[in-house]
Write a structure and sequence with these properties.
heterodimer; A: 5-stranded antiparallel sheet; 28% helix; globular; B: alpha+beta; DNA polymerase, domain 1; 5-stranded mixed sheet; 5 helices; 5 strands
């Protein structure tokens, strides 16, 4: 830490179009909203963009709309606001809980939904000071040509640690992206791919504008493990949604964060007869989660512990939702 | 890139020419000589640099001054009024909430943000509001007791 802040120009657009234009004018420019992760990266020499485009003044990003099609939450809405929203707490409990659990209270005052969805992947070999990384010959994600986590592999294994993505994914959220060619909307799950150095599908000069949640249906919950109960990024986290059908069965949706380079929707064993919850179902559920995730040595905590914890949390949440 | 920024610090309007990359903690400590807010972890992990921006606790070590134009900033130096300590400052003093004292400005400011929003917090509210503030003396019991005492005094 304690590197000098790099020099940059802060551009302050007031509309999404102006922000897109600013990105086009300054190749390599980086978007900045709350800055809770970005400023730390700048200080560590992990990013030196020359131009920052400040999204805080773009009023259109801070709106929330509730319609019969569901809830549209602007990318600039802060996590503290999301955590305090009644519509979110009632209709999408996992989303409220995830927002409430991010970092510490002063981070949540400024950290935004868009920032958390676009959060850079993290690794114990990456989130270090310049001199630390230099003495280790850098790494695949930044300046180097080897991944210290998996030296024989050919991709970066840094883990995605955003809390909002899995919570939104179990509710079937989509995201709205604006760019030079207009607006597009994709399933949030399709926004990510499994490469720590390039984990989000955002074209150059594109901006995440909002998340769309379908009308409330399933109940849901979110839980994570971390070293300290506050401030820390998750070692692993899981969101579970439970849709109880009229015929007495329960359908679960599970999404995991912190274990892979992207938030992961887990394939599940099938429906559960909610009238008679059975141990075999939950045992299979636990195994499925263990099989799906692939935590690596990206944190100081052993991958195996994170694998077992996240599967145990899944079962705990699923049982609680029945 | 430089700009002129105008903001309020502890009720006083301040104008200055600043570079875009100047952090709020450096602006306060180096240019305004307000050294109450501390640089602890220097990376948004400890809360020692907490100040109030428009009444809400913010981490000044990860806040750009350029983004605070027109904002109302309050630091620990602005808490005492007319030579009289604020309720929280007095409570921390009387209940031994300040130990080595390094985290205390951040603790008091974070607690001030809480009490303005919720004048009668329970223990869990206090723990949640101070969740981003670390004390390396690890005497959180007296810190929580201090906030409770200040809240009790204010609601009497």
């Amino acid at each position: 830490m304690t590197e000098a802040m790099p020099q940059f120009q802060l551009i302050e657009p007031s509309t999404v179009d102006e922000a897109v234009a600013a990105l086009q004018d300054a190749p390599g420019a980086v978007l900045c909203a709350g800055g809770t992760d970005l400023v730390v990266q700048l200080r560590q020499g992990l990013s030196d963009p020359g131009t920052l485009v400040n999204l805080s003044g773009v009023a259109a990003l801070s709106t929330v709309e509730e319609t019969n099609k569901g809830l549209r939450v602007g990318a600039g809405v802060t996590l503290a606001e999301i955590a305090g929203m009644e519509a979110v707490a009632n209709g999408y409990p996992a989303v409220a809980k995830a927002a409430q659990s991010v970092a510490g209270p002063s981070h949540r005052e400024v950290a935004t939904l868009g920032g958390n969805l676009c959060l850079d992947t993290r690794c114990v070999y990456f989130n270090q000071s310049h001199w630390w990384r230099k003495s280790n010959s850098f790494c695949l994600k930044n300046r180097g040509d080897i991944c210290h986590v998996a030296p024989k592999g050919n991709r970066c294994r840094a883990a995605f640690s955003g809390d909002m993505a899995p919570a939104l994914m179990v509710h079937g959220a989509e995201i709205e992206i604006a760019g030079a060619n207009g607006v597009r909307r994709i399933a949030l799950a399709d926004f990510y791919h499994e490469d720590g150095a390039e984990h989000i599908n955002l074209e150059p000069c594109e901006i995440v504008v909002a998340a769309h949640l379908p009308p409330p249906g399933p109940t849901s919950d979110y839980e994570k493990i971390r070293v300290r109960g506050s401030i820390d990024f998750p070692l692993a986290g899981v969101a579970v949604a439970c849709n109880k059908l009229d015929d007495g069965t329960a359908q679960f949706t599970v999404a995991v964060t912190g274990t892979n380079s992207k938030p992961l929707l887990v394939e599940l064993p099938g429906d559960l007869n909610a009238e008679e919850p059975n141990d075999a179902f939950f045992a299979t559920l636990e195994k499925q989660v263990q099989k799906a995730v692939s935590p690596q040595r990206t944190t100081t905590i052993a991958p195996h512990y994170r694998r077992l914890s996240v599967s145990a949390l899944t079962v705990r949440l699923a049982e609680g939702l029945l | 890139m430089k700009r002129i920024v105008s903001l309020k610090i502890n009720g006083r309007t301040v104008e200055d020419v600043i570079p875009d990359n100047l952090l709020l903690i450096d602006f306060l400590r180096d240019r305004q000589a307000l050294t109450g807010a501390k640089k602890g972890c220097d990376g948004g992990e400890c809360g020692a640099c907490t100040v109030l921006v428009d009444g809400r606790p913010r981490l000044s070590c990860i806040t750009l001054t350029a983004k605070c134009g027109g904002a109302d900033i309050e630091t620990i130096e602005g808490q005492a009024q007319n030579g009289r300590l604020s309720a929280l400052q007095r409570a921390f003093h009387e209940n031994l909430g300040a130990q080595c004292g390094f985290c205390t400005p951040g603790m008091i400011i974070a607690a001030e943000g809480l009490l303005r929003e919720n004048p009668d917090p329970d223990v869990n509210d206090i723990k949640a509001a101070l969740g981003g503030n670390l004390c390396r003396c690890t005497g959180y019991v007296k810190i929580i007791k201090s906030v409770q005492a200040a809240a009790a005094e204010a609601t009497q």
